[in-house]
Specification:
Layout (H helix, E strand, L loop, with lengths): L1 E6 L7 H14 L4 E5 L14 E15 L9 H5 L5 E4 L4 E4 L9 H5 L5 E16 L2 E9 L7 H9 L7 E5 L6 H7 L4 E6 L3 H16 L4 E8 L5 H8 L4 E6 L2 H8 L9 H18 L7
């Protein structure tokens, strides 16, 4: 299996547009592929398809429950917690768990010598499986409202990928924070989607620097090409980053996308260019050193 993450330093550059078009093009050309929507805060890739929802997996983590009748307020659990999720005032015998800060590591349970701490599952989100012809083809991560981190939900979604799948397309969250890292760390190659604007260039720089810090190969697609200036192209050339494709700005393309349709479904040439791009990426980077 070869995994390609489609990412961007900022929202609105066309990351999901590229991801769903690549997936559609691969499927229509007869290649075995799965699409994983890792943008757990605002997943929308599945909305472009009519696949059947065949399964939902709850994503939870264990959080501590403190039995105050057994607690001696020694504060050892507080000392063991690296995330400051246990608030304690021993002189007045007050102890509370701040669930939003808890990472479910279980250190507090290990620290307690008085059996005062048990654990209960806390909901983080869901992973939805969409299938066609009895095979999962789209995996969607969706975090619960109010949850602090999307990382556990993204991790759970990626785990659902069938190891026998030929190509996995990961629609990454925007930005360069932890959810982005969790997504691209599992990829063999990262496609960075940008736009020819000052904001697009600024965020592209951050993405490139982040990927280089984890030694992850990448290439760039310039979406809405023809707008702005050549600053993004010049940067890509200077940094010797492969320019995979330029997608011209088009009112027709915007109209098709706004209607929830996929351009590759109506433009065979565009679909063919995406398939060729993916095949070239796999040819050049097929021997990934990433250990799953």
């Amino acid at each position: 299996m070869f995994r390609i993450a489609v990412a961007s330093g900022k929202g609105g550059t066309g990351k999901t547009f590229v991801a769903v078009n690549i997936f559609q093009s691969l499927i229509k050309s007869g290649l075995d592929a799965v699409l994983v929507d890792c943008d757990a805060e605002a997943p929308n890739a599945a909305a472009f398809f009519t696949k059947k929802l065949t399964g939902t997996i709850a994503v939870t983590q264990l959080v501590p429950v403190i039995d105050e009748s057994k607690c001696v307020y020694c504060a050892k659990c507080h000392e063991y917690c690296n995330y400051n999720s246990i608030f304690i005032l021993p002189p007045v015998k007050i102890i509370k768990v701040i669930v939003d800060l808890c990472h479910g590591c279980g250190a507090c349970s290990v620290a307690c010598n008085y059996g005062a701490i048990s654990e209960k599952p806390d909901s983080l989100g869901t992973v939805s499986l969409f299938s066609e012809k009895d095979r999962v083809s789209i995996i969607e991560s969706r975090m619960d409202i109010g949850v602090m981190s999307a990382v556990p939900v993204i991790k759970a979604a990626i785990k659902q990928i069938d190891p026998g799948t030929g190509i996995a397309i990961l629609d990454s969250p925007p930005g360069t924070s932890c959810p982005f890292i969790e997504t691209v760390a599992t990829a063999d190659f990262v496609i960075l989607v940008t736009e020819p604007t000052p904001f697009g260039l600024s965020d592209l720089r951050q993405s490139v620097e982040t990927l280089r810090s984890i030694d992850k190969p990448s290439g760039v697609i310039i979406n809405r090409a023809g707008l702005g200036n050549n600053a993004v192209r010049d940067y890509v050339d200077r940094q010797e980053i492969p320019l995979l494709m330029e997608i011209p700005f088009s009112k027709k393309t915007a109209e098709i996308y706004s209607e929830g349709k996929i351009l590759a479904g109506t433009d065979p040439a565009f679909a063919g260019s995406l398939v060729s791009m993916v095949q070239n990426i796999i040819k050049d980077h097929g021997n990934s050193s990433y250990k799953r």
